[in-house]
Amino acid sequence: MVSYTVTEVTNMNREKLKKANKDKLVLLARKSNIRGAHIMKKGRLVDALMRVNTRKTKAKRSVRRKVTAQKVIGRIRMLPQHKLRDRVFVTAPPVGQQRQQQKVEEAKYYAGPAPEHRKYEEFNFPSGYGDNRITIMVRDPWWLYSYWEIQPQKEEESRRRIAQKGLSPVKSILRVYDVTDVEFNGRNAHSSFDIELSGLANTWYINVGTPDRSWIVDIGILASNNDFFLLARSNCVRTPRFGMSDVIDEEWMCADDEYWRMFGLSGGFGVGKGSLALKEMFKKRLLQQITSGGVSSFSSPVKKAVKKKGFWLIVDAELIVYGQTAPDAKVTVQNKTIRLRKDGTFTLRFALPDGKQDIPVIATSNDGDDTRSITPIITRRTE
Question: What's the predicted TM-score (pTM) here?
């Protein structure tokens, strides 16, 4: 059996390979780690062997260049001209340039000097600011929150004034004034009540008991004859309203689409429901309230209530105006332009207080040539 080495394969050119028989080519292909050589035709075997030959030749030249480069680094080597054909000469850069390149490489990963560990002093709010002051804030419709700071000198001054009048101090108190809709001067409050302070308290929750009112709080000392010696007076706050608003705006109106959109955005009777679902829910709720004797409308009400022995009744009403015209027409209601639906329909909701109410509706065609006007006149009287 004939044996071939890798060197023999590398030294063969295409012509020699073509002259060899297929068995020899298969043997060479196996030596060169070519898969599937036994099923290849002679032409494909020759092509495969030539590709292997080309790769090995390039690898051999690359190794020769590297060896030559290593021999000439740092010195000049004179070679005959015919030996310089495939030689590559690499000279080492100057020492200064090498150091400069090294600094550039190190600078790529330099993140700056390490931060200094600073010691931060812990901040604590002071126990006081050297002032004589009381402040109140609203917590909910029935409660206020108050806090204050009174200097000892201020309190001693008030006690000396009490002693000069032959009186004695009895206790420290908060005096709460109802100053709704008045310019408070210390004596014109609607009503007031006192809260006795105990211990070293400097904050207090105050139960005013009445929503939608304005309040001012004084802190001071009550003398033995019930005279009040003021130490500080607070700011004025107003507790919020509780329940539905009693304010009636007879001029308000809202397009039906806009009404339901705002109703849905406000949460309505369920988050995330569509306008149709909200309408059905509203109608169902309204029907339940009417049949059960509860409130019959959710608009701004006109209330007339009679309270006697715990039994009461509330009746109110609202007005719905609807119509239709050409979808591209311009419509005004009470001199205000409204938006039509795609089919030209519109729906408006009005408060319905006692008295007479005119609602002029004017429609103008898109070209401005035709105008139609209808004025519903509504009168309500509650007995």
Answer: 0.38
